[in-house]
Amino acid sequence: MSEQTELMDFDKAIELFEPVLGFEVHVELNTKSKMFSDAPNPASAEGEAAAQEPNTMVTPVCLGLPGSLPVVNEQAIRFSISLGLALGCEIAPSSRFARKNYFYPDLAKNYQISQYDEPIAHDGEVSIELADGRSFRIQIERAHMEEDAGKLTHVGGSTGRIQGADHSLVDYNRAGVPLVEIVTKMITGTEGSAPEVARAYVSAIRDIVLALGISQARMERGNLRCDANVSLSPRGSGKLGTRTETKNVNSLRSVERAVRFEIQRQAAILHGGGTIVQETRHWHEDTGMTSPGRPKSDADDYRYFPEPDLLPVEPSKELIDELRAALPEPPAVRRKRLKEAWGFTDLEFQDVVNSDLLVEIEQTVAAGATPAAARKWWTGEIARIANADGVDAASLVTPAQVAELSKLVDSGELTDRLARQVLEGVIAGEGSPAEVVQKRGLKVVSDDSALIAAIDKALADQPDILEKIRGGKVQAAGAIIGEVMKQMRGQADAARVRELVLERAESLR
Amino acid sequence: MAEELVALSAAELSEKLQSKEVSSVEVTQAHLDRIAEVDSQVHAFLHVSADALKAAGEADGARKLGAKLNPLAGVPVAIKDVLCTSDMPSTAGSRILEGWIPPYDATVVARLRKARMVPIGKTNMDEFAMGSSTEHSAYGSTRNPWDFERIPGGSGGGSAAAVAAFEVPLALGSDTGGSIRQPAAVTGTVGMKPTYGGVSRYGAIALASSLDQIGPVARTVLDAALLHDVIGGHDPRDSTSLTEDWPSFAEAAKAGIAAGSLKGVRLGVVRELGGEGFQTGVSARFQEVIELASKAGAEIVEVSAPSFSYAIAAYYLILPAEASSNLAKFDSVRFGLRVNPPGGGTVEQVMAATREAGFGPEVKRRIILGTYALSAGYYDAYYGSAQKVRTLVQRDFASAFEKADLLISPSAPTTAFKFGEKLEDPLAMYLNDVATIPANLAGVPGLGLPMGLAAEDGLPAGLQLMAPARQDAKLYSVGATLETLLEANWGGSLLARSPMGKALRATESEKGAQS
Q1: Which DSSP letter does residue B328 get?
Q2: Percent of chain B with pLDDT over 70
Q3: pLDDT recorded at residue A295
């Protein structure tokens, strides 16, 4: 990051230029096996749980060994059709795979099997809602299927990037993971809301794939990846600007920040008489900046041609109808239903929607928490920690963990204060809430005999206070309660202790 | 005894094995001895299996236990080096895969093993099946058993020569533009390119995926049919594999042998596959076959397939295009040869140095051709146009098959040429596939069988029969009838008249005289 990046004030940038956006969102499907082989899929729920030692989730097909052939995963086709339908797309009666040819060591065959001129789904629309209640319609150009590449680890450099590294390691576990790439049409008219629209769009895609259950959709793990195209058109010029494509945007928060950054950066360059280089840029979460990647020119020649090892994908009308009938309800309908079911006020519900935690709260409620508790945890403590750490709340804990935590509080096994400590432990990766309770020894002391022994001792040590309580000065009990809570290292229910103190004071008479 | 065994067809060996007159170990040992005796001259094999006798012993053991076995159980078979074998190197005739042992068997190889056939070795071929002579093998040429100065055809010259030299009764080949049928023609053997999708391609190192097909190589039509029965049928690992059930090809061949007549069969002579460019002796033999077929009751019709004239041009765009992409995986990263440039280098430099050192000139030529044909701005003119020609070829076949049940032509325009004769002229080499390429472009099956010796050079000439897609059985029945009629005229098989066939008989009668 040696380059000095000049930024224009955001409001001024919007005054001078109209931002034009476009997104390519890659969704890793959570099918049991990979796109073209029966190797386990590391992006599935089972795959995520596996050890994932490098190059263990592979077959001859993933490694591109001579003689190996791809076979299309039927489940991936079904998931892709469902996603296409949920995006309001037309499903092509016949679509085809093509080979995208380029040499790169993470690409085992040195070609990627993708869909090119005949995608499985095209021409759709997604409605998004902004915090202030305004809604936008994002036009979808296409959604096509392809396989993911492997992962390179650059060794020997200080930055972990290829520059300065002395060698690289390749892990093909991810090679062949099924992907759907969703491409929008050009998005105009967002004006100053552009960063917010960007975030809301990716959030909407995330909600859709989660509702369909076709992806783990964890952005921080790369299940959902967003490339953001940004260009600026000088006001009144009617001319489109040169676009950049920002990659590596791994959270909803980053999507918003990256778009804002690119608008400010490009505006400064254009205003200073410079030109925008058409290129891929990398987002850096730590610095909140983008840096140039490889120049992207329209002259990139991938020598696409129809994949001769695969037949065209021709889903029957019956299959499409079946998948259409099984689609989850549209987001707006769903929001209305959930709001009523949970009994939230307008304000509470809007708070949930704005924090992109609808799915998490829904899943937490499904896992056994009360709606109020689920909302309290997600929009309260968890959101606070996420905000402080600059990450998405959903990346910190799972809904199941939150539900478990909430149940421990409801049953009296944890106080709120203890539960916050347990949450810290869960986020720190110490295990499930029950495991953290065990490891940290945080259980509420609900054994009355232990409490009574401590109370009796405290009362005996401070006979003057005992006298005061007996004399009707109930507030004097506070000192005893404090002492007992200290003895119990905070792991007791203070209300119960108070009850017992009064009882013992009476009975010791 | 041993000489006698190697002269037998697979069907004859099958009978002797089933009647327990001989064991698979004896049969296999006889062929291993034969390979040891003649392969230093023929050079059909790149690798001879160390486990052949073990597999033979297991086949014998299974037979002793009374297991119900495939008719070919215990019969040795050679495997073209383009097919992956988990116990033998699989190089596709290329330096870039020298010594590479795949971690898996090709589906067809797995099926050989399941049928308890005995894989005896891997056969030589033009590098990545690019060529018509085996002169493009990185491991030296195979010699034609009829004349060691001449090519055995290609790319599957090794499989054809091994069978013609009595080193093995059966072999597997792959046919992308004639690599099974043209070697069969110039070595006096039988070779079948099945309907596209009839035999799994899983584990066959791809040349051109939309054209490649695995098939049997043998000395008789019945033997080829028996082997086709073993390797054919649906494979879920190959998406282009057809799902239907196939009839028994061996039964079809047997019916053809028994029929002795071609009554009711309409044979279409393709006008474009003859005349100019075809050697006089080849054309003469072809005319005799037509007369023979006619006498046997076949109805001879002339058909025209005008777009066949463009087939070679289209083929040499589609093949290099697909090959340039299929061969991209040979980059040294995961398997095979790795060449580090002096002083080390980036991964791109290592890839380039490896491909420079590991690929031969013909492979490089076709990769460059194919890369060019797929380039932006040229795609429509080259690859796009070639695909249109392909459609026209398919239409020509469709209209020809309205008039005829089968099409008939020479398999190759010439007999075996001499080493080096066409090496400097790739176009002349490519023209040797003029008769075989149309079947690959259309995906229809083609059977090659011997039709006699050309008068001018005394070398074998090949006959080709082609059928509509999925009608492979018809080729075996009509092919077997024609073979029976021809052998009746010759007074035995054509191969018996080859120098090696004669020598084998001489040894046998010598032994017979001694005993």
Answers
A1: G
A2: 98
A3: 66
Tell how strand B406-410 and strand B266-270 pair up.
parallel
Asked if the model's pLDDT at residue A297 lies above 80, the reply is: no
- Domains, chain A, with CATH or none: 10-148+176-307 (no CATH), 347-440 (no CATH), 448-507 (1.10.10.410)
Res. A499 pLDDT band, cuts 50 70 90: confident
ipTM of the complex: 0.95
Count A/B contacts: CB-CB distance under 8 Å: 100
Average pLDDT over residues B204-212: 98
Distance CA B432, CA B132 (A): 7
Q: How far apart are CA B196 and CA B240, in angstroms?
A: 8
Q: Which residues of A touch B324 (CB under 8 A)?
A: 101, 303
B379-394 average pLDDT score: 96
Dig out the tokens for A432 from the structure.
């499930």
Q: pLDDT tens, B362-371? A: 999 999 999 9
According to DSSP, the β-strands at B214-218 and B299-303 are unpaired
Provide the whole-model pTM. 0.87
pLDDT band at B512 (very low <50, low <70, confident <90, very high): low
Give the length of chain A. 509
Inter-axis angle of helices A194-212 and A74-86, to 10 degrees? 130
Local structure of A155: helix, strand or coil: strand
Domain boundaries, chain B: 2-260+448-514
Q: Which of A62, A116, A303, A313 to mutate to test the interface with B (most CBs of B within 10 A)?
A: A303
**Three-state DSSP state, B191:** strand
- Active-site pick, B179, B241, B332, B493: B179
Please indicate whether, in this complex, the C-beta atoms of B236 and A103 are within 8 angstroms of each other: no
Separation CA A451–CA A49 (nearest Å):
42
Neighbouring CB atoms inside 10 A of B470's CB total: 18
pLDDT at B2 over 80: no
Q: Specify whether the CB–CB gap between B321 and A111 falls below 8 A.
A: no
Q: What distances in angstroms separate CA A445 from CA A412, A489, A494, one per listed residue? A: 10, 10, 10
Is B179 a residue of the active site? yes
| Nearest alpha carbon to residue B120 among B202, B177, B46 | B46
A-chain CB neighbours of B205 within 8 Å are 66-67
CATH no., domain B2-260+448-514: 3.90.1300.10
For residue A485, what pLDDT band results from cuts at 50, 70 and 90? confident
**What residue in B sits closest to A106 (Cα-Cα)?**
B333
Q: Is A305 within 8 Å of B375 when comparing Cβ atoms? A: no
Query: Rounded to an integer, what distance in angstroms lies between the CA atom of residue B251 and that of residue A391?
Result: 70
Decide if A170 touches B, using CB distance below 8 A.
yes
Please indicate whether, in this complex, the C-beta atoms of A71 and B236 are within 8 angstroms of each other.
yes
B366 touches A: beta carbon within 8 Å: no
